[in-house]
Write the structure tokens for this entry.
Amino acid sequence: MTTPHPFRFGVVAALARTGEEWTAKARAVESLGYATLVMPDGLRHTLAPLPALTAAAAATRSLRVGTYVIDNDYRNPVLLAKEAATLDLLSGGRFELGIGAGRPSAAEDNRMLGLAFDSGGVRVARLAESLAVLKALLSGETATATGPHYGVTDAQITPRPAQQPHPPLLVAGSGRQMLTLAAREADIVALGVPPTEPEAAVAEKIDWLRAAAGERFERLEININLMAVGQQVPRYVATQLNVTADDLARAGAVSALMGTTDEMCATLLRRREALGISYIVVSDELMEALAPVVARLAGR
């Protein structure tokens, strides 16, 4: 039997009214024992992830920072590699690059950017090309790509990132095509899980990952974003999705973590054994609620 990945815990945050408020939030995440502060990507409602993560890294000592996730359509992979390498260098090797092909909800941002929102298959193929360029450049190689989505000729970036061969790559996905790409290319796989998805459906996604990853499956760190901790859910879950913690619990949702601290720890240990999920993130609204579990399980 292989040794499971140790538990890591992270916080997803994206909002602050001032720079002082943002850096204070980053310090609070670190002080509670979380390993990472990660940010989504988008044009509206949130801070821009790369400058905000740079500020968070500068305000903390050990906290890792990451994108959760960059929308691949929005950025040229050569420029993204340059920015990722710089952030990793300036943070002392604490950056994790999360990237995805874009959710259906991103279509409006694409429209504002003057970009077509292509089919899922096209977006996944474009991401596959982008990942090849990113991995080459972040590893210190010269990158050339001949399309059909990117034309890159003898691209190089300096300085190199602090982490070698490159900062960890997180790829997010839900469907089989996207998870197959993640299994082959990522260091960390973020499972896109609808709020009410039961454990059996997640087990099927893990089977897809295992089949596509082959021998490298045991090296994959598998991540999930919780929608409920105890009786708490983030405001957007309650208002936009009209879902309560009890609704999620009744559905047997893997995105819900219920009960006492002992019971929550037991659930996470069981899920790690059954599904391999070891990297857990929560909204900043839930970080205090999960903190006792973090204190008990982080690094174990």
